[in-house]
């Protein structure tokens, strides 16, 4: 087998960053795995669900990838396959604007996940050791990793000596979080629960409106009251992928998740992306979604009007009557012209102000946002308007192995494209350190 030398491509952190603690708060553990590490891992195991991976990849890209063959060649000692494997593994500009393509490539990391709890824990800990070395090389002090909520992992994270300090964020399923939540509660209250700092919802957003989160959010808050020393921050990916709905509804989703009490919002692209990115275009949304949007407009009529959004109560009520007998899943056409796009901007302004008042922190992942959101022009990126609106923003890497980036590079991108320079950089570092999950949940109220 080809030896797995670590490629020295990660730049050390620049001196100005070392004046502050570095915290990467939106990170998926498996997304930290870099191509050469995944290639070596797959070559060392025979438990890979190739059929599932290849089927999903073909659905997104239109061809069956030669990944299986490349791994076999690497196992046999052919090191020339590394670049070809990396092209199939790394998500880049050619994949921009498609969450499906991102997910199809990311599936490779999940194709070899072991069903045995013991072997799964060993797998996670093996990856975490490599990831920890990666972050240490970057000079990162604190990392919150979305990963499996396993006692072995919590114990290892709790007892290891930093930097970086690694903490677990448990990802709960959107559709039915309850079984996973019961496990999270047990582990959070258990002997190693200090290493578990938050819960999060990620993956495909479509089909899972914010109202589905209300009950489980309340459960988390109840747990926090009963266990203040193990309180969990509430995090949620929202407004990252919204091809199935209107721009109005996508904005609303972000506002609603913040209003439900989320401490941090993952990405929230829909909230601040410049509507000019989309230009005049057409899309559809379901009758059920349109009804929710009408209810929102009626409930927020005064605030929306004050932001310059046209809200005509009589028209909306008439539309509701017309939709009353329509199937919930039926699709309604929506056309956007320049006038409507300008109103989208005003809706965003209103929603951003509400998110700011709610105290929710926005997790911005520039490279990830640009690729998944299809934001090729940096001037359209939502971070500009988030900062202008006075929102509390933290900069993170999301899936640094998948997107081939580092925290230092993400910070540099924001400061360069916003013109904020070192002053903004240091403010962003403070934001991140003061927005650690254990601070936001009240477990450790002193941020410094």
Secondary structure blueprint with pairings:
Elements: E1 23-28, H1 35-43, H2 50-61, H3 67-75, H4 82-89, H5 99-110, H6 117-138, E2 142-147, H7 151-159, E3 165-171, H8 178-189, E4 196-200, H9 214-226, E5 233-238, H10 247-259, E6 264-267, H11 269-272, E7 281-286, H12 287-299, H13 301-306, H14 313-323, E8 331-336, H15 338-358, E9 361-364, H16 366-372, H17 383-388, E10 393-395, H18 400-403, H19 407-418, H20 421-434, H21 437-440
Parallel strand pairs: 1-2, 2-3, 3-4, 4-5, 5-6, 6-9, 9-10
Antiparallel strand pairs: 7-8
Describe this structure in words.
- The N and C termini lie far apart (47 Å).
- This protein is an alpha/beta fold.
- Helix 1 packs across helix 3 (67-75) and helix 3 packs antiparallel against helix 4 (82-89).
- The chain has 21 helices and ten strands.
- It has helices at 35-43, 50-61, 67-75, 82-89, 99-110, 117-138, 151-159, 178-189, 214-226, 247-259, 269-272, 287-299, 301-306, 313-323, 338-358, 366-372, 383-388, 400-403, 407-418, 421-434, 437-440, and strands at 23-28, 142-147, 165-171, 196-200, 233-238, 264-267, 281-286, 331-336, 361-364, 393-395.
- Strands 1-2-3-4-5-6-9-10 form an eight-stranded parallel beta sheet. A two-stranded antiparallel sheet has the order 7-8.
Concise summary:
This protein is α/β, with parallel strands linked by helices and 448 residues long.
List the total number of helices: 21
- Poorly predicted regions are 1-18
Structural class: alpha/beta
Strand content is 5-15%
* Gap between N and C termini: 47 Å
Shape: globular
Read across the widest sheet, the strand sequence of neighbours is 1-2-3-4-5-6-9-10
Radius of gyration: 22 Å
Q: Calculate the mean pLDDT score and round it.
A: 92
**Sheet with the most strands?**
8 strands, parallel
DSSP summary, beta strand count: 10
> Helical content, roughly?
40-55%
